[in-house]
Specification:
The structure is a homodimer. By secondary structure, the first copy, chain A, is α/β, with parallel strands linked by helices. In chain A, about 50% of the residues lie in helices and about 15% in strands. Chain A has helices at about 10-25, 35-45, 75-80, 135-145, 155-185, 195-205, 210-215, 215-220, 225-235, 235-255, and strands at about 5-10, 25-30, 50, 65, 85-90, 105-110, 125-130, 150-155. In chain A, helix 9 runs antiparallel to helix 10. The first copy, chain A, is elongated. At the A-B interface, helix 5, helix 6, helix 7, helix 8 and helix 9 of A face helix 5, helix 6, helix 7, helix 8 and helix 9 of B.
């Protein structure tokens, strides 16, 4: 494919996207970052030019991919010249309309958590796409399908809902791991003890519905154990309240 | 090993334990269940005798493993004759003292979630053990080590804390998957879309501390996104409250 791609941003998502596009044979022509050192590191890894000034943007690129923090997207858009290519952002919770000053625009949201230095099998990552019109959608779909076999069209409202579900299933889940770790370390027990259980809990819901997979004192409505757990947590108000609300929620989901 | 084992119970844990003991060469002499059909199914699979009356217990067994629901342990203990062998229960949140009518007793708590029909690599399962005295502990340790390479001595208080941490890291986590599924199905989106993300979230904490792995709007203190998410959840009071308390908790853990 002869498409030229410009990457705007140098964070986790920008870095993963640039590297996957590069490996799939796209030409990355420029990488922008406010910090020229960050731009240079990423640009060098994908044979591109590094820039730290959006007025130096090569306007002949086919795709401009804005992959910066949610709160910076608007600023970036305001600083960009009007370009003929397709401008996209990669954010789950930002509407497509933030890009409406351009003629052709879209969203390419890779639905995954990216960690510096940890590679991801991009082919399995669901990619949610949206575009300003049907023709642009075809182009966005084309490059999305070159990244992943799991491309889903979703408008801004659906994308925001998907993002919200991820906050529960990933961000909040990770926080529960932090709480568990905290409780264990109060007893000088390593978090490692939880790893086989966490692994199995995850494997279960790959095969069965989470409602069917639910176990534990709340699911059994074992109020003796619940009471004892609340007693242990009595001095940790935050963890006490979380235990209570999630226990009540599990019971309410049975109804 | 020539030890004779008696299994009291026929649920998930009893079934998994009986099968692993049998496969590791122990002789299972009897399986008790109040329901003779359940006792028979399990007993047949491990070449044992099925009984549904605790007065028929062969008192010459070396180990009596009580693996029934937490709330039934006391009733079972009361119905058992005094035996010379070691009596153990397998519960995370029940004290060892429930067995104190016996001369030799202990706890063997496999720290894992067991699902009917799904085999587990028992060798990786942490097993928490406790015993009425040092000699009994040696015997309990011996049979625990024949099940798993990860045997940990823990008294009742520590065991209860470990169990509590599992409620957060497994039961509550699974419930967050149910909530995410619920939010997705309101938008006609399959839970499958979350699976790569859930897999990666779990893989991350196998390698890094959960505090370091934390991402998302709460971690970034991105109040615009948080506000928008709460707006989406406005009509689901339960999910709204859970979002709020977990968001506040993530922020408080940063301090």
């Amino acid at each position: 494919m002869n498409y030229k791609i410009t990457i705007i941003g140098s964070g986790n998502v920008a870095t993963h996207l640039a590297s996957v596009f590069f490996n799939r044979g796209f030409e990355i022509i420029q990488v922008f970052s406010r910090n020229i050192e960050n731009a240079t590191v990423l640009a060098n890894s994908v044979n591109a030019e590094a820039i730290d000034d959006l007025s130096k943007l090569n306007i002949n690129s086919d795709f401009f991919i804005i992959s910066v923090s949610d709160s910076s997207i608007e600023t970036v858009v305001n600083s960009m010249p009007k370009v003929a290519g397709i401008v996209m952002h990669t954010a789950g919770s930002i509407g497509i309309e933030v890009l409406s000053k351009f003629n052709n625009f879209g969203v390419l949201y890779p639905f995954q958590t990216f960690t510096k230095g940890k590679t991801i099998d991009f082919n399995e990552v669901p990619i949610l796409i949206e575009a300003s019109n049907v023709d642009v959608l075809k182009s966005v779909e084309l490059i999305a399908k070159s990244l992943s076999s799991n491309v889903i069209e979703a408008d801004t409202i659906r994308r925001k809902n998907v993002h919200l579900s991820a906050v529960f299933a990933s961000n909040f889940v990770n926080h529960l791991y932090s709480i568990a770790d905290n409780l264990l370390s109060l007893n000088d027990i390593s978090f490692d003890i939880l790893k086989p259980l966490i692994k199995e809990t995850t494997e279960k819901i790959m095969k069965m519905h989470p409602i069917q997979a639910q176990t534990g004192p709340a699911q059994r409505e074992d109020y003796n154990v619940i009471k004892e757990h609340l007693k242990i947590l009595e001095k940790n108000k935050n963890e006490f309240d979380i235990y209570k609300i999630l226990t009540e929620s599990i019971i309410s989901y049975k109804k």
